[in-house]
Amino acid sequence: MTVQMPMLKVLCPMHAVLDAEGRIVQAGPTLRKLRSALEGRQFLDVFDLRRPPDLQQMDDLLRATGKRLHLRFRDVPRTSLKGVLVPDGRGGAVINLSFGISLVEAVRDYALTNADFDPTDLSVEMLYLLEAKSAAIEASRRLNRRLQVARIAAEEQAFTDTLTGLKNRRALDHVLARALAGGGDLALMHLDLDRFKAVNDGLGHAAGDHILQEAARRMLGAVRRGDTVARVGGDEFILLFDGLTSHRRLGQIASGLIAALEQPILWHRTPCEISASIGIALRPAGKTLQPEELISQADAALYAAKAAGRARFEFADTASGPA
């Protein structure tokens, strides 16, 4: 039984009928959608046969009967196709083509729809599955991004003092342990606000909170980029200076901190005056020291600064470093 041309258009919408000279005499509707005006053109002028190799004329094509053909358009877009050839018994042939793995790109490039495939072709179902999979993957990615943002926010909150926005004691412990493990020069300042309790008791906790927030802002402005400032108590702060043990430079920073904090802070037009006492401990490079030892040394220096009249800084007695 001979397959009639109208039947081919329905059953094989990607077919090409070739005459004995290798010219295209008919193209299926979907193939015509990919390239117009195919009739009358040499099949091998339209398509680049990649496998089997060395197919250069109609006789070569006929010898490839029943073999899987790998081809692509010679002009852009150079869509890759697969095909199989069947002789028509009169020197010509019918080649049925399909997209293979280039299906997704072809649907995008040529705006193909369900009507462009034969009714039994599973390509449409595969496209639906791919779209569903892509949608599921994108939804999963969006969920993962939201979870990651939420996790980062939770971690930041866990390591942040909610009133001042500085690092809290938990964050300080991590930073200090990491800095000490690094083995380099390190300085730690323990800073306590002078006269803060009088302001807090006299004007109320709201004023005290405002003082702490402004003090935190001023401290950040008085240290180097990358230095750590943490609130570890009501009006107590610890500052870490990685890579620094110079008494002269640390003294300049401590003096700057005290001067910045002594500038009056307004609370509803009422100037509030505070200051700071600072104890400084050093860990020179190569010296083994535990976090609690360094903090204890800074505490002792802080008490010495307070005993000497407050609004000043002192170095720990055990500290040693370049002047």
The profile of the biggest β sheet is:
6 strands, antiparallel
Structural class: alpha+beta
Strand order of the largest sheet: 2-1-6-5-4-3
- Oligomer status: single chain
The CATH homologous superfamily of the largest domain is named: Reverse transcriptase/Diguanylate cyclase domain
How far is the first residue's CA from the last residue's CA? 105 Å
Number of helices: 11
CATH C-level name of the largest domain: Alpha Beta
Shape: rod-shaped
EC number: 2.7.7.65
Pfam family, one: GGDEF
Enzyme class: transferase
Organism: Mesobacterium hydrothermale
Please tell me about this protein's structure.
- With 323 residues, the chain is an alpha+beta fold.
- It has 2 domains: 5-121, 2-Layer Sandwich (Beta-Lactamase), CATH 3.30.450; 169-315, 2-Layer Sandwich (Alpha-Beta Plaits).
- The chain is 43% helix and 22% strand.
- The protein has 11 helices and 13 strands.
- It has helices at 5-11, 29-34, 43-46, 58-63, 103-110, 123-158, 169-182, 196-203, 205-222, 247-262, 291-307; strands spanning 15-18, 24-27, 47-51, 69-73, 80-87, 93-98, 186-194, 228-231, 236-242, 265-267, 270-272, 275-283, 313-315.
- The strands form 3 sheets. The protein has a 6-stranded antiparallel beta sheet with strand order 2-1-6-5-4-3. A 5-stranded mixed beta sheet has the order 8-9-7-12-13, with helices on both faces. Strands 10-11 form a two-stranded antiparallel ribbon.
- The longest helix is centred in the middle third of the chain and has 36 residues, at 123-158.
- The chain is rod-shaped, with a radius of gyration of 40 Å.
- The relative contact order is 0.09.
- The model is unreliable at 318-323 (pLDDT under 50).
